[in-house]
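Good morning C.,

I know you're traveling, so I'll keep this short. The sequence:
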Amino acid sequence: MNVIFPFSWIKDHLKASVDIQTVAKLVTSIGPTVEEIKKENDDYLLNIEVTINRPDCLSILGIAREMYVALKQNGYQAKLENDYLSNWVKIPISSKKIPLDFEVDSKLTPRFTAILLKNVQVKPAPKIIQERLIKSGIRTLNNIIDITNYLMLELGQPNHAFDFDKITGPKFIVRSAKKGEKVTTLDQQVRKLDQGDNIIQDSSGRIIDLCGIMGGKLSEVDQSTKNILWLVANDYFAQIRKTCMRMGIQTEASARLTKELNPEVTYPTLLRGVELMIKHANAQVDSKIIDLYPQKQKIPTIAVSDEFIAQKIGQPIAAKTTGEILQNLGFKVKRINNLVKVKPPIWRINDVCLPEDIVEEVTRVNGYDKITNQPLTFPLPPKPKQFVKSFKAESKIRSLLTGWGFQETISYSMLSKTDLINLGFNPQKTIKISNPLTQEWAYMQSSLTANLLKNIRENQASKEIISLFEIGGVFDKKGKETRKLIIGRSDNNWEKLRGVVEQLLIALKVQNTTFAPQLHPILEKNSSTKILAAKEAVGYLGKVKVRILDKFELNSKVVMAEINLDKLIKKIIEAPPRFKLLAKHTPIIEDLSLQIPPEVNYQQVYELISSLLNIEKVEFIDHYQNRFAFRVFYQLSNRQISATEAQKIRQKLLDKLDKKLGVKLQKVEK
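The tokens, ready to paste straight into the viewer:
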């Protein structure tokens, strides 16, 4: 996720006399990546990429802390100020109780904090707050709403202000929504809820908030607002993410909450928010702080030895350096001889919990470039035999097919419902994704065919014949994945594709491969062929039905073959290569045109011809209707074959074809 922060705001927390380019370069080397620096008047706007495991850096204070650490590590004078998460703000507290009974589902909201503020003045926010929000890409409304956004960007924790007088008491209920319920959000959209969505309801039964995503219209702060219920809550990240994906909505608040913020950050954020409300809205604290936190987060103590760090990095790091880095990052460090006991700060509890995490923190700040190259000191773990076999086979397939003029495609493993219906597949027999990013990717693919046809369609304007292949996973109803290979061409010559498959299987050393007619729901009847290896079906090939081509808006014929690689690879014979001496004598070559009965397939004819003694090789040439042309090579191993001998072998061949298969020689009309 990227954030845009003005450097002038970061300098509220970071005190250092260092130019912006140096700061950006150093902080990028240890973590958050400054992708762009844009000068705006007397300020700089930093476009910063933050990795998903560092939600603390989606804040001004988080970025300032990383910059502080980077500068200190590289010998610059720097100071971190106004760290409101380490040094909590002190606020006046009333002894009064909020006149609401709070019922909070802790599974949806692990920590819930709230306070009542009275006599607030709704007015424009101070100029500096407005400018900083606008520079960060957030529009301004009034001082109350602007403070909520300002606080979220400053500390990274979303928060919300309710108009207290619009809440019907005495109940304030945080619960799971029921399917079919509705809420009107601040953008005036009526949103239909599903079972599990996190919402807030008052005593009248009205839904007044869509937790962690967007406030409700019914409790909106406006110019007449006098009293505010200030709420800072830690909402369950997985449910927020699920709701956002289903609704197709993403807000600044939900973008942070879905990264799993720590509940320990909630309370100090509330204190800082109250301070801002007192300062900029003349608010008066009118209650105790409500803090519902039934399952308090435990801060782990992680023990790491100097030897462990050195082993993982490959070289030792000075104990003093390790301690300084961790302390600068906000960790509590206690050293006992060569052992370091570390407690992560409240904003890092979720992603620092193992000794390896400590090693990573030390290493990234110390500098990956300082790690010297060293030879491997331990053996690599053995790879499963089947994995090695599969890897070699797939590599060879890629090499061969690209060498034969095919281009490899890589597609998503998801399809739309329309894709499945267009192929004639039943969507109910396919895995449906419960929370798809889009309806175009709502089902897991059970065949590679749809993506092949779509790829040909997208490229059909660029060239006459498109030759593609793809290796990918398909999924059955139970979720089991199978590796498959699909090969396709935008032409009508399925026999040529069969030849490609045949040569591919020979090159892979798949033994006892044959082809036999078998109907397939997506292939034309006269070409539909199953591929067998050791009598087991491993795939199929043929012409794609015209009906399917029309559905996918293709303007040419398509031939394709889909092969189950998991089955095929088991049929590969791994044996040392066997060499055969080249024949010393030349063969007599003859082309035969044969009439084959409808019930006889090509493979039967091919195998019978190949089985005869002194026939060295057989090649398929062409066919038209039931006429097939073969090229036959007659050859003797010990001497040159004569024309008379070749004629005798030929006659024996024709007799056997006629007797066993009813195949006859096509007579040439004069």
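Safe travels,
E.
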